[in-house]
Amino acid sequence: MEMTLRWYGSKFDTVTLEQIRQIPGVTGVITTLYDTEPGEVWSRERIHALKEEVEAAGLHISGIESVNVHEDIKLGKPEREALIRNYIETLENLGKEDIHLVCYNFMPVFDWTRTELARKRPDGSTVLAYTQKAVDELVPEKMFESIAADTNDTVMPGWEPERMAHVKELFAEYKDVTEEDLFENLKYFLEQIMPVCNKYDIRMAIHPDDPAWPVFGLPRIITNKKNILRMMQMVDDVHNGVTFCSGSYGTNRENDLPDMIRSLKGRIHFAHVRNLKFNSDDDFEEAAHLSRDGSFDMYEIMKALYDIGFEGPVRPDHGRMIWGEKAMPGYGLYDRALGAAYLNGLYEAIEKSR
Ligand code: DNO
Prior knowledge:
By secondary structure, the protein is of the alpha/beta class. The chain has helices at residues 17-21, 44-56, 71-75, 80-96, 132-136, 140-148, 161-164, 167-173, 179-200, 225-234, 246-249, 257-263, 298-307, 334-352; strands at residues 2-6, 26-31, 60-65, 101-105, 116-120, 126-131, 203-207, 240-245, 268-273, 276-280, 283-286, 313-316.
């Protein structure tokens, strides 16, 4: 496996490539063209420029997170035809630039959902947190306002203002969309893009829904073992794969994370490894990566990845905000660097004990 860090590009990230280069064992970044809109074609020139910038810093692009999927594709509207053609063109341009991993998600309207971006932990750090109660009491538009107030002047992925401007209309459009419809629309999308993925060997890695249950009455399907296996089977191609995100699948305590990893052998193309601390079944906060700071056994998660022969990129995920850092919540340098070092340590120990 290759240790990587997510990087939003020099215009958007408070963390620099030079800093990432100095984290022991980190050789690649997971990045994106953060200022593109879903549905837009990524030009080969822009991809090439991004690649050169990353390589000039002594790193390389290990994958893209994300090429976002336009809502009309998720909704299965007639407009999807042109939008899927654009998506294919983007994949083609990525393939030509020798990029072979694309993370995306199929969550309606919202990407990940948290109710607090700066909950204070006993050690004085702040973290992202979620309580079902807060969601139940909120109207979706208000959710955006409370998120926007806490972002340290950064644009949070999945919560871009342009996206939020259309929240109300989107909710109306999803009114009659069922989980079955969403599965159908995902299948349609995947079938259309598989030929280009095969041609350029691009591994698509769907990110789970976070939290792993429906929020605000919107359907959500990438939530558990049964559904993800269904998705793998419905388009049975190795390029139709998974981003295994422990922090997202782990929100549902019925998900047995090491077991899920083992059942997805060969289809996990990318891993986000982080820990959560549960205060009750529907109140959790993001902990340090260390097992004993949270509720997951990180050793078992890393061991399962090792056991299935996972060779793709892994990244520490959301970190706590520590040591006075001001950055995009979850995406500062310090705690993610600690996370990378810890995961590398676990990995070395697992490898040597085999
Ligand atoms: C949150 C991330 C997600 C993820 C997308 C992938 O920090 O885990 O925004 O990148 O869902 O498309």
